[in-house]
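Q: I have 586 residues here and want to know how they pack in 3D. Can you give me a structure?
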Amino acid sequence: MRRASISLLSHLTRQKNKALTPFLSRNYISDTAPSSSSLLHSSSNHLKHCTKTNGLILKPRQFQANPSPNIDALVEKNAQISSRQRKIKEKYELEEAFESAETAEEMLQAFKEMEASFDEKELGLASLKIGLKLDQEGEDPEKALSFATRALKVIDKDGNKPSLLLAMVLQLMGSANCSLKRFSDSLGYLNRANRILGKLGEEGSNNVGDMKSVLHAVQLELANVRTAMGRREEALENLRKCLEIKEMMLEKDSKELGLANRKLAVAYVAVLNFKEALPFGLKALDIHRSGLGNNSVEVARDRRLLGVIYTGLEEHQKALEQNELSQKVLKNWGLSSDLLHAEIDASNMQIALGRYDEAINTLKGVVQQTEKDSETRALVFISMSKALCNQEKFADSKSCLEIACRILDKKESVSPVEVAEAYSEIAMQYETMNELETAISLLKRTLSLLEKLPQEQHSEGSVSARVGWLLLLTGKVTQAIPYLENAAERLKESFGSKHFGVGYIYNNLGAAYLELDRPQSAAQMFAVAKDIMDVALGPQHVDSIEACQNLSKAYGAMGSYAIATEFQQRQLMPGKAMDQVQEMNS
């Protein structure tokens, strides 16, 4: 998309002036001003005409012997024209050198030479083009931002109407700031770009295709920024808009459209929303099968993703079928790394289906193909442990987990996200074996990694909630509360205040306060939990009913027996008691 932005910039500027591509002073600030090429052409013709006329009127000797005031003026005028012609030609050559530059280094060198001949206003579009190139390469976001800032100062002048070009500059500002982890600044620029594009759309822009390309870039960058900030639900909305734009611009069987569907499916999987992920995963598969055939790599990757989605939906047989089809293609293409991960996925599906010996045999084959201290080898031992745990071979299971932890310990600084996910999985197995203290220790270690990664705020919230819950189970109630409170805040920021996960956390907070003999605080937490559960799951859901029962207990502990009894009677009658609870708590 960043490469496309550079192409789009050239396209936009060619529409303005086909003779000279990128310069703002000629193409955007003053459309009526003559271009350098037209000046060059006009001056050359005028000079030729004067020279020819002079030759007809005068002989050289006469000119030298008897110079006249008129001839002196004409000579001076010709000299001025010649000087102006040279300057125009020099500018033209500098422009040509800049336009022919292919690498960022060549562009920067050409730009440096131009700075002596062009003023800042004339360099606006060239600054934008270099900024886009640097942003595309991603190696020096500070330099990309400096050129974007120069372009913005020229293009965003008072009196200049909102334009597609301004939206492009703002998108670049947003992207560069995102790369520098200045997320709030990035959001400000991107939101402004989005507003400008919305206004241009309402006004009926002539360049609909170009506008959609820029809008796609803005929406995609908004998704990146919000993901980096941990605001996953908002990022999903931006990714959906990206897909809608691509559906309007691309052919139905376009590979790029298939990839966009898969990208959205992956984003839903990341927040464990497998139900929403499924149609986009299936759409990606249909597009790639139609355009590339059943044996393409993209089809294999779609099938592997569908295996993960079906596993999340607990349709394990379907998951295994998709995985096996994926493995056949990956094997044909010799994609060993993808194949190893697909085989690990398959073993986890076999475990879910209760086929433990089959899973162990699969993993024994995989482990022989892994490097000694690789993350992939650690994942093999984690899955092996899961199979052994299900066979109640706890000593062997723990040995596998210890091997995995020794490998992962060396990878924390290199792959913090992957290691955090692995620690979380290991902790879950220790929970299964009732090794709660070990599980808590590992989850705290996981948190120490996730707290440094803003984009993993949703994972931080989930892990913090698990730590709080385990501390409650082990009787460490006072220690549990700050973990649960942190979890609630992180998940609200990531998924919104009405997400069912937030409801479970408030339910646990209520239980903690009730344990500490603080029934009024408990009632407040249970009331919030029930309100969320009713919205997210429905008032008849078993967890909504449980929240209502907990609310009754809290009011009973406060001595408010009438209200407690009312909740017991109404726990299957949705929505009738909440107004009274909120009034009591206010």
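Q: Anything worth noting?
A: Confidence is low (pLDDT under 50) at residues 14-67, 574-578. The chain is about 80% helix and 0% strand.
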